[in-house]
Amino acid sequence: MTTMQNAGSHGPRRGSAVSSLVSMARQLAVPGLIAAIVTGIAFATTRLSGPFGMFVLWAACSLLGLYVFTRRSQGRMAATDAVASVTLGFAALLVVTALGFIVGFVLLKAIPFVRLNFFTQTLEGIDPDSPATQGGALHAIVGTTAQVLIATLISLPFGVLTAVYLNEIGGRLAGVVRVVIDAMSGIPSVVAGLFIYSIWVVQGGFGYSGLAAGLALAVLMLPTVARTTEEMLRLVPGGLRESALALGAPEWRTALQVVLPTAKVGIVTAVILGIARVAGETAPLLMTAFGNDRVNVVQTATEPQSALPLFVYQQFTSAQGSAVDRAWVGAFVLIALVLVLFLIARVIGRSKTARL
Amino acid sequence: MASLMVMGLIAVFLVVQAIPALRTAGLSFFTTNDWRPDDDPATFGIASMLWGTFVIAAIALVIAVPISIGTAVFVNEYLPSALKRSFVSVLDLLAAVPSLIFGLWGLFFLQPRLSGTSRWLADWVGFIPIFKGNGIYTSSMFISGVVLAIMIVPIITSVSRAIVAEVPRSLSEAALALGGTRWGMIRQVVLPYSRGGLVGASMLGLGRALGETIAIALILSFDFTRSLHILQPGGASVAGTIALRFPEALDAGRSALSAAGLTLFVVTLLVNMAARSVVARTNRRRGGGAEATGAKGRA
Q1: How far is CA B296 from CA B69, B169, B181, B192, in A?
Q2: DSSP code, position A166
Q3: What is the pLDDT of residue B1?
């Protein structure tokens, strides 16, 4: 256990931290093996099935084994420490494997049916029983693009203005605004959908449309953009601000001409993260965009429109064999879109921090 | 300012939309289990949904909170800083996966692999009411809760990590210097010191879980009863019902769904506000009597 004690808690002593991980793995070998045998017996005798039950049982048995072994050789405190360390490690491992399984499974389900026509055709005139390689989601991709664009156009100015207000101007109301932004980021997406349904579709009398969907997504995107932009503004060195003020620039010009341009890259990151958050939203679209089998660009503001998540959901709930396969392709495109957006944000963000 | 207005508008317009339904149902809206707002006479209420929402959220929290806090502590105290950054990316990615994908994955990947475990639980501990089985172990609140747990792990973990990272190094290094093991340091210093913040982080996860829609709508087989048997099919959730019933609902039904949405809005708002204030209070208290708190934790 000496390696574990030596490794500093927060320090960058990488070698010792890695070796503590390695020693954790080594200590686990023998108990892990015994636990595997016990788990096997439990499976054979108690009708336990399923890999998750197996994993939990195996993990519990190995930890017990680890405790017993370490306690015999190194005493009670070292044994508790070893068990706790390995348990924490299991928790972290679980999170990583979950992401791997999700992405991997969607990939596995979708790959056999990915064809180019998914991006060039629509569902118009596609029979329920035609194979999944026919027909496509062009209308949905177009719809998602339009809706996300609308959401961005609305949430970008409001989000940035809110962030500027919070970070540059402040004042007594800033605290209230921050609380409200926090509360807004906790709004369930379905409630945002109901809200736009009420204010726009029914009371406004505008009916279902891509524009309504864009509005609902804007409600969800605004807090993300505002929060992330605020964090980015905080990275702008105070010296820049003070120089501008010292040159006699009023507060608003400092914010507009000095702070915002400096944080430009950060704001782009904020928008991309906001898009990644809302592009996959399904629930609010059910009551705003409503869905459509045809490409709808010109009438985005007045007619129902499809969207990628809506396409996946509707294809999936229609429950015909080929429609479900088509839904998987849609899910794959959706997850790829979100991951790519995310990576772009990361890359931009990294170059930004490198520059500052 | 715009955000203030939006929040106000949300409340106002949900109320406007919900009034016809609330007028029909009156107080029975909160006590009725059934959901048939378009029938004549209409009987509907959110009792069973609200119940299901909280049961599923509770299952999710029971699974997600230990995993999240464990992960947060592990990332902070064990991982070298290079790995730490990539792990945070993994968390952010997991948070960015759309809930629709979680739902599909839960239904097609997790459910077939989890129902055997459900059956095993029912076979061996079925005498405890909540684990009672009836032979079918799919589309249950348990499976929904497990999927939801994975969905809320990122938010709880990232908030917890920020809180755990703020434990003063002087305190944790003092514990190690006194000859404590690393776990001893975590249990005696890190966890007591950040307890309040960790509660707040879990409550943020709860707020997220209460509002989760599509994943539950896909996995759960909805019936509007107040059931405690989490391994059996059935149960309901407020958000899931809104998504599932909305497309085919008539005017009365949509008004009723808006009333349900209003309730959900109020509940999540309260939970989130409470969570934020708990986190904020922890930070404030740290500003003042930080060292004292840590010392008490060790004694």
Answers
A1: 21, 16, 19, 9
A2: I
A3: 61
Cα A169–A173–A177 angle (5° rounding)?
95
C-alpha–C-alpha distance, residues A290 and B147, integer Å: 26
**Alpha helices (H) in chain A, listed in sequence order:** 2-6, 14-46, 51-74, 76-110, 138-164, 172-185, 189-196, 210-235, 238-246, 251-253, 260-262, 264-278, 283-286, 308-317, 321-355
For the stretch A10-55, pLDDT in tens is 444 445 666 767 777 777 777 777 777 877 777 767 766 677 777 7
Using CB atoms, which residue from B2, B176, B258 is nearest to A158? B2
Nearest CA in chain B to A9: B77
CB B261 within 8 A of CB A190: yes
Provide the pLDDT for residue B140.
Answer: 87
Give dist(CA A343, CA B93) in Å, integer: 9
Question: Is this complex scored with an ipTM above 0.95?
Answer: no
Mean pLDDT of all residues belonging to chain B: 84
Q: How many A×B Cβ pairs under 8 Å?
A: 284
Tell me the three state secondary structure of residue A137: coil
CA distance B238 to chain A (A): 10
pTM: 0.85
